[in-house]
Structure formats: structure tokens, C-alpha cells
Specification:
Length: 551
């Protein structure tokens, strides 16, 4: 059956770099928000009185929301016939929902205190509202993330998929860097208490505004093709049919897409505890081994741990940022006919010399897994926050590759899916202010220039051309990203329950000393990081298998 489209993808901008930056700009706000959540929410919940084992259960919100929202939103967006495009309406609406829930999370105590009297019941309600707000943020932000990623695949042709993914990785690193730098600054001392009297409250306000602005910039700069009709868009969008399509596609993936998903599964068993607990781990290491007595008695222990942890992640983000900008020049494109960016003049000579020895992206991905494993295996032996910071920073290089590689390979595979319909790309004019796509089999005439028809052979086959089903396949990739998060949560629950079953002595100052867990044994978070490192070795072997499929 033919899918009919109106218009062509278009990105504002006077240069290739500007267009790529605008297309991926939303990821800055998205990653800034993720960074604030990952940096502050664990110590925030510990401060409210949750034990580490219960906190690990709260973080089921991340994988659960990813497991549900990204595939479903991806399928619904794939079928959308909105005049504004398939992705941008979900991005804008979702960003406002995330912003609202962030403000509820930051000001939970004040909101609950307005309705509930002082006492144990208020503490219970406060924890409940905070947990629900985290779940709401995770569900909404996963919807935004699904559409931001799919928009890149939809808009760019195959030769530019690696470049687009590289720019996405750069924007992710920028968002991380901004978030962690903001976390190290004492915003309360600088701006006073008028818009919140703690660091966390002010950061939720900044994150809410930042996400809306970033998504707004990309939505303004990008014009999508509009889906006029297809079999999927004209059939009822019943929940059962959507779930059935996701299940049918996920259980019959092409070999190379299946291999990409397998790599993602193994690697994220390692990345999940790192991203959610590394800040708290560095902060606890500081409090246990390096902090002066005055710091341990601080009234804002949450802010202290957040700032110390954020400092380590600033270094991590600077390494990621540097890697995200330089690695694309030092790694061969996986598509031989693809777009190759020219390096900046400052490093052009170096790039030319090493050009013969450049590894491909798959080899670099394997190296990233090994480097991450080597760093996190040493986590239980870190008895100085400086050494812990060094280990965290070392993971910046593999994280830059992890943000780049899977999206590159999946974007290329999704755009190669259709074997019966050869849909190509060409620039429609010499205007350098846009990136556009058209079908080479359809002459551009006044009668059909605004309508593009894509033939997909058998109507029952869920194949994709030019990213038509990118939402579905990226949703499935996210399923393989979230399943290991359930595994990681289960592992964390067991480790925390055995090694540190009580409340945090660094943060839960209101709890009775008998309720605090001991600090003589190994740090429970460090043990989780060690287990994740072992899993990432499995990811290296899975990536080698993916490389064999590409040969």
C-alpha cells in the first residue's frame, strides 16, 4: 500500500552545522533535565527518609516508563496525520507536562505542607507525592525523548545519519555539562531564596524552563513532512493493535537490528547504576573519607553531596563533550558513501596523519565497553573522592560512544528496511538553507511536487522507508535499554538490602541513629557499579558479533 506525504523535511539554518545543531538542540534541554534528576533525586529521596533499598525500587520508574511510553508513543506518532508533523506536537506537549511535574517535585514539601498538618502522616504524604512526581516526569520525558530521536531519523537521509547521530551525541554532552556545572554552583547564595530556598528547587525551575525553550527551538527550526494517508493511519489506533504491532515487530527483528538491541541490553546493565547512583557514590565517598566535621554536620547535606557529586560529573561531562566533538573526526563512517565532516583547521593535520589507522565505529564501541568495565571494576577500591572522580571522568569517553553508536546503526538500518521501494534523497535546489528529501522515481512537476508517495509492497509487512516507522524501531531499542534497568534495579535492591539496609547516615539526619546503616563495609553503590562492569564485558562480545554481521 502507498503512503502519501505532503511537503518535504526542511531545517532552517545558513550552514550544515547550524542545521544539524538546530535539529538536535532539543536534546540539550532533555539531557539537562535527565542530569538534574539523576544527580539530585536519589539523595533527595534519601533526605526525605527513604532507605537505599526502597529508593532503588523508585527508580523502576525509569525503565517502566521507557518500556511503556517510548514504543507506544513511537507507534502513535508514526501514524499521526497532524498538519504540524508526526513528532513535534508530542515533543511540545510532553515538555510542558515534564515542566509541571518537575516543579511539583521540587516544591513537594511546600505543596504537601499547605494541605497536611505537621506529623508523621505529612512525611509519608511528602514521600508519596515526590515518588509520584518522579514517575510522572519519567513517563512524560520518555515521550519527548522518543520523538526527539525519531525526528532526526525522519529528517535526514542515510548518508547523513551518522552525522546527525554525532550531533545528537554532542548536544547530549552539552546538556550534561550545563546541568552538572549548574549543580556545582550555589544558586541559593547567588540568587537568594525568593524562587526556592534550596539548590534542588532552583534547579527544577531552571530545568523546566530549559526543556521548554530547547524543544521550542527545534520545533521552530524543523518542518516535517505531513503524513496524508497510509494503512496504519487509517486503521483504528486501538491499544491492543498498537501493543500487537510492537510485540510482532520486536519478536521478528532483522538480524542486524536484533544484534544492536542485544548490545544495548548488556551495556545498559552497566550504565544504569552509573547514571543514577554515581553522583551519590562520589558524595558518600567524600563524606566517609575526606569531609571535615563541619561539612558532615551541614544542614543542607543534600546540597553538599549534590555539589561534590556534580563536580565529578562536570569533569565526566567535559570528557564526554570533548569526545563527542572529536571522535567523529577520528572514526571511520559505517556507510562508505556517507557524509564525512571536515575537521577544524586546528586539528586537520593530526586527522590526516591518523586517517589510515582510524577505527570504524563498531571497533570504537567495543573499546568503549572495555574502558568502562576497567574503570568500574575499581569502584569498590575508591577510598578518596578524588579517585572516585577520576573513575567517573574516565567513563566520559565510552559514554560519548554509547550515545552515538546505537542510534547511528539503527538509523541506517531503519532507512534501509525497504527492499522493494527504492526511496532516495537529493537536494531539491542549490539553496543551502535546507536539508530536503524527495523520491527519485517521481518526477517533480507542479502537480505532484508537494505530495510524495512511498510504495511499501505487501501492506501487511511493517517495513519502513525514510524513517516511516522510526518511532516503532527506536521504541523497541528503548525496550532493550529499559529491560536491563529492571535487572539493575533488582540487583541494586539485593545489594542495598544486604550491605546497607538502614537509612543514610549522611543524609537522613532526622532519623534515629539506630536506623542508620553502617559505613564500615564496602559501599553498596560501588558494588553495584562493579557488577555493571562485568556485564559490560558481555556488551563487548555482543558488539563483536554485530561487527561480524556487517562483514
Amino acid at each position: 500500500m502507498a503512503s502519501s506525504w505532503a511537503g518535504q523535511p526542511h531545517i532552517k539554518g545558513s550552514s550544515e552545522s547550524m542545521r544539524m545543531a538546530l535539529l538536535t538542540f532539543s536534546l540539550i534541554g532533555l539531557q539537562f533535565t535527565w542530569g538534574i534528576e539523576m544527580t539530585y533525586c536519589t539523595p533527595y529521596l534519601l533526605q526525605l527518609g527513604l532507605t537505599k533499598s526502597k529508593t532503588s525500587l523508585v527508580w523502576i520508574a525509569g525503565p517502566l516508563s521507557g518500556l511503556i511510553m517510548q514504543p507506544i508513543v513511537g507507534v502513535v506518532a508514526d501514524r499521526s496525520t497532524s498538519k504540524y508533523g508526526r513528532r513535534r506536537p508530542f515533543m511540545v506537549l510532553g515538555s510542558f507536562v515534564v515542566a509541571f511535574c518537575l516543579l511539583v517535585l521540587g516544591f513537594t514539601k511546600e505543596i504537601v505542607g499547605h494541605f497536611v498538618e505537621e506529623g508523621e502522616f505529612r512525611k509519608t504524604v511528602t514521600i508519596t507525592v515526590a515518588v509520584l512526581a518522579i514517575y510522572a516526569v519519567d513517563f512524560a520525558i520518555n515521550a519527548v525523548q522518543a520523538c526527539c530521536r525519531a525526528l532526526i531519523v525522519d529528517t535526514l537521509p542515510i548518508p547523513k545519519q551518522q552525522s546527525g547521530s554525532a550531533w545528537a551525541s554532542r548536544m547530549v554532552s552539552v546538556g550534561h555539562l550545563i546541568g552538572y556545572i549548574a549543580g556545582t554552583i550555589d544558586l541559593v547564595a547567588i540568587f537568594g531564596t525568593s524562587m526556592g530556598d534550596t539548590q534542588f528547587k532552583k534547579l527544577t525551575i531552571v530545568a523546566a524552563l530549559g526543556l521548554i525553550v530547547a524543544v521550542g527551538v527545534t520545533s521552530w527550526a524543523v518542518t516535517e513532512r505531513v503524513l496524508i494517508s497510509s494503512k496504519a493511519s487509517t486503521s483504528p489506533d486501538s491499544p491492543l493493535k498498537i501493543i500487537s504491532q510492537i510485540f510482532r515487530t520486536a519478536t521478528s527483528l532483522p538480524p542486524r537490528i536484533q544484534a544492536i538491541c542485544t548490545v544495548q541490553l548488556w551495556s545498559w546493565i552497566g550504565w544504569f547504576p552509573f547514571l543514577f547512583y554515581s553522583t551519590t557514590w562520589v558524595g558518600e565517598t567524600y563524606f566517609r573519607f575526606d569531609a571535615p566535621h563541619s561539612a558532615k554536620e551541614s544542614k543542607d547535606a543534600l546540597g553538599e553531596i549534590g555539589r561534590i557529586g556534580s563536580m565529578s560529573l562536570v569533569v565526566f561531562s567535559m570528557v564526554t563533550f570533548t569526545g563527542a566533538f572529536l571522535l567523529p573526526f577520528l572514526i571511520k563512517s559505517p556507510d562508505e558513501g556517507g557524509f564525512t565532516a571536515r575537521p577544524p583547521p586546528a586539528i586537520a593535520g593530526l586527522v590526516t596523519k591518523v586517517n589510515k589507522y582510524k577505527p570504524d565505529l563498531l571497533t570504537a564501541w567495543i573499546g568503549g565497553h572495555i574502558l568502562f568495565s576497567c574503570a568500574m571494576v575499581l569502584a569498590p577500591f575508591a577510598h578518596s573522592f578524588r579517585f572516585a572522580t577520576f573513575l567517573v571522568a574516565l567513563c566520559g569517553v565510552p559514554w560519548a560512544i554509547a550515545c552515538w553508536a546505537p542510534n547511528t546503526f539503527l538509523g541506517i538500518e531503519v532507512n534501509r528496511m525497504s527492499s522493494t521501494a527504492t526511496v532516495g534523497y537529493r537536494r531539491l535546489s542549490t539553496d543551502r538553507n535546507s536539508i530536503e528529501m524527495s523520491s527519485p522515481n517521481t518526477p517533480m512537476t507542479p502537480s505532484n511536487s508537494s505530495l510524495l508517495h512511498l510504495e511499501h509492497g505487501d501492506a501487511n509487512e511493517p517495513v519502513a522507508s525514510t524513517g516511516e516507522l522510526s518511532g516503532l524501531y527506536f521504541g523497541i531499542l528503548n525496550i532493550y535499554t529499559t529491560i536491563p534497568q529492571f535487572i539493575g534495579t533488582f540487583i541494586s535492591l539485593i545489594v542495598f538490602s544486604i550491605l546497607e539496609p538502614g537509612k543514610s547516615p549522611e543524609l537522613a539526619h532526622d532519623a534515629h541513629p539506630d536506623e542508620h546503616h553502617g559505613t564500615d563495609g564496602p559501599n553498596a553503590i560501588a558494588v553495584c557499579l562493579f557488577i555493571g562492569a562485568i556485564s559490560t564485558i558481555g556488551a563487548a562480545f555482543a558488539t563483536k558479533r554485530l561487527r561480524d554481521l556487517h562483514v
